[in-house]
Amino acid sequence: MKTYPICLVGLETRRAVVVGGGVVAARKVAALLEAGAQVTVISPDLALALTALAAERRIAAIVRPYRDGDLTGAFLAIAAAGDPAVNEAVWREAERLGCLVNVVDDPAHSHFIMPAVVRRGEVTIAVSTGGASPALARRLREKLEAEIGPEYGILAEILAELRPELLARFDRGDSRQAAALALVDSDLLETICRHGADVGLRRARELL
User: Fold this and answer.
1) How far is CA 165 from CA 9, 21, 61, 184, 198, in A?
2) What is the pTM of this model?
3) What is the reported pLDDT for 170?
4) What's the CATH code, domain 11-114?
């Protein structure tokens, strides 16, 4: 299955609906919360993790079966009910409303699929097999987690702090990119690993 990878932004102001209250739904909710989404869960039964999130007011919970109309105002929806008939109904409503929808384990009835994700601060690495093998995507994610440590997130923070200086000092896009790549390819990662963020920032300014 061909895909077009994107990273959604601005989910803090968007309503996301997860239909289903089991372990799979809880994983989807956790990922949405990590992205800052406003999450509503609809299910007659909730896993303990979802019950806790609802008690902490981190999600809205509607404890009843899904009904047509529940996606009104939603930007995206995830159908994880475990009941094919319910998931099909969610898909149909999402299609009618123009709401992005993912039906768990059913790429043919999804507008997007969920990649395996590695996060290191602002650095996000997504692995997808186009729905062919979630197991392979998981193993690749585990390899990346072992190789891409927290220092990459710190490096991204340092480069973000220096970005205004790069924009001010280099008028041409190609020279600016070359300067940025020189920083990335330098000994900054090693410096961060050995001495921490503050020393890394000082080293970056020296190199700049």
Assistant:
1) 25, 48, 46, 15, 18
2) 0.84
3) 84
4) 3.40.50.720
